[in-house]
């Protein structure tokens, strides 16, 4: 594992956002949803996430997530992803979202 400096870590904008809307993403190679997320002062951003194993579209709106908001935009088929949704793979490779134990303001930075 390569070590990084504190300055390296500070460059990563890990921010909290609230999921506003969830859409099917049938064009994705692996099952995924399209998400619209409110990151407060950083705006409303879209991304896709392969989280269909543990989460339904109905369960996600209102949930706070952690995203990396300073990666370049990424084209995924006809869809433009504006941030990276964070999570961890379980023993089967299915993604579990990174979550918070209490609500915090949208746009808050991980410190």
UniProtKB/TrEMBL annotation:
CDD domains linked to this entry: tRNA_bind_CsaA
PROSITE patterns given in the database record: TRBD
Domain TRNA-binding: 8-111
Keywords: RNA-binding, tRNA-binding
Record's signal peptide: none
InterPro entries in UniProt: CsaA, NA-bd_OB-fold, tRNA-bd_dom, Tyrosine-tRNA_ligase_regulator
Name of the protein this chain belongs to: tRNA-binding protein
Organism: Pedobacter rhodius
């Amino acid at each position: 594992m390569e070590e990084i400096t504190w300055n390296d870590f500070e460059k990563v904008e890990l921010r909290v956002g609230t999921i506003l809307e969830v859409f099917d993403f049938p064009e994705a190679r692996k099952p995924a949803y399209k998400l619209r997320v409110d990151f407060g002062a950083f705006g409303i951003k879209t991304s896709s996430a392969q989280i269909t194993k543990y989460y339904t579209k109905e369960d996600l709106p209102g949930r706070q997530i952690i995203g990396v908001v300073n990666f370049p935009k990424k084209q995924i088929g006809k869809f433009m992803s504006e941030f990276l949704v964070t999570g961890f793979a379980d023993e089967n490779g299915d993604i579990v979202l990174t979550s918070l134990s209490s609500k915090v303001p949208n746009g808050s930075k991980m410190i």
